[in-house]
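User: Hello! I'm new to structural biology and keep hearing that structure can be predicted from sequence alone. Could you demonstrate with Chitooligosaccharide deacetylase? Please show me the input and the output so I can see what each looks like.

Assistant: Of course. The first part below is the input, the amino acid sequence of Chitooligosaccharide deacetylase. The second part is the output, the predicted structure written as tokens.
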Amino acid sequence: MRNALAMAAAISLSLAAGSAWAQNAPAQAPAATQAKCDNPNALGVARIVQIDTTGGPGFGFEHFKAYDFLRDKEVVLTFDDGPWPGHTPAVLKALADECTKALFFPIGKHAGWYPEILKQVAAGGHTIGSHTWSHKDLSRLSTEEATAEIEKGIAAVSIGLGNKPTAPFFRFPALRHPPELVKYLGERNVGIFSTDLDSFDFKMRKPDQVVKSVMTKLEKHGKGIILMHDFQQATAHAAADLLKQLKEKGYKVVQIVGKTPLEPKKEYVDMVMKEIGGGLETARPMSSVIQTIEGN
């Protein structure tokens, strides 16, 4: 009973197909984009799950077992370490072709280097959390250094999105989460994502290996939060086939959104702007500013 009450307090569910969700959602909640789908056989989004991250709840049975909110044959697609040229856009195209949504955990430095790609993720209606500033193992840093890694990552993603708040979700690099940092994120009301199924796609060179890894683990577990990396070339090339197989096997995608957006702390915004240079928040896409006109 206690777990059921806690789950009800932390998670509110709504059907993706119902327009009532958008009408009744709290005013401060970031809207989940449900664009018109031109693919009648698309994988789509079966449900939208809104999470109240007050107190920093954790998700993903590899480390956090309080909230088993997925039904049988439901998956949450998550992608780490982007944005990255070529690879992230390929993942976005595959998701768009199947009219489905994912949860992205960008690295702050990558968001600073490629804000135009990060904005494409947002334009696709996907949820965007954060994944530290430079993907350091926080368990090897002092609490002060690790806190700066977390906050600079949040700030960089916010800046890359055009000074907009992020979703209140965070994933630790290598899933290593020191207790003092879990406590800190709880005080910041940031939800922590581990995983149910780690694809280990960073160890793979071929797209079919990524697909096999995910599908084999899904067959065993029946559902789950899937960890992948839009930074990885094999995953970028595997995305379309993976989504097709998920559809063929009867799996359904659940999109995650946060109840309350996460605002970056000003001192870290200033720190990031000083480090990566001013003007990023208003910069045009690099492709519209710089073009190769001769040579490869």
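User: So the tokens describe the shape?

Assistant: Right, they're a compact way of writing down the 3D structure. Reading them back into a model, for example: The two ends are 63 Å apart (CA to CA).
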